[in-house]
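2024-03-11 09:14:02 DEBUG pipeline.ingest accepted 1 chain
2024-03-11 09:14:02 DEBUG pipeline.ingest length=119
2024-03-11 09:14:03 DEBUG pipeline.predict start
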Amino acid sequence: QVQLVESGGGLVQPGGSLRLSCAVSGAIFGINAMAWYRQAPGKQRELVAHAPTTGSTNYTDSVKGRFTISRDNAKNTVYLQMNSLNPEDTAVYYCNAALYGMGGWDDYWGQGIQVTVDS
């Protein structure tokens, strides 16, 4: 069974940093784009950062210069380094990946991990 397992969330003070990790487990034969989304209470889920297999990464405007998405393809893992966090970054963060598994290409989601920025 293919799974995306997230880790690294928690409570942090404004101005602090966190690094989220998302590891792919299970029988896969390829990984295409990987991304992080977030959903704050009462708001729609939004794309935070996107990392294609090749080419430039992309970020939503509110995190540019503060967040960095990176991939370790050897470990089938994607990271989100979050710096200068502020309360508006409080949300459940979701990992997303396009994976080639037993049934072909499909879109997979992690279970979500809470990030809370509060003093």
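2024-03-11 09:14:41 DEBUG pipeline.report The chain is about 0% helix and 55% strand.
2024-03-11 09:14:41 DEBUG pipeline.predict end
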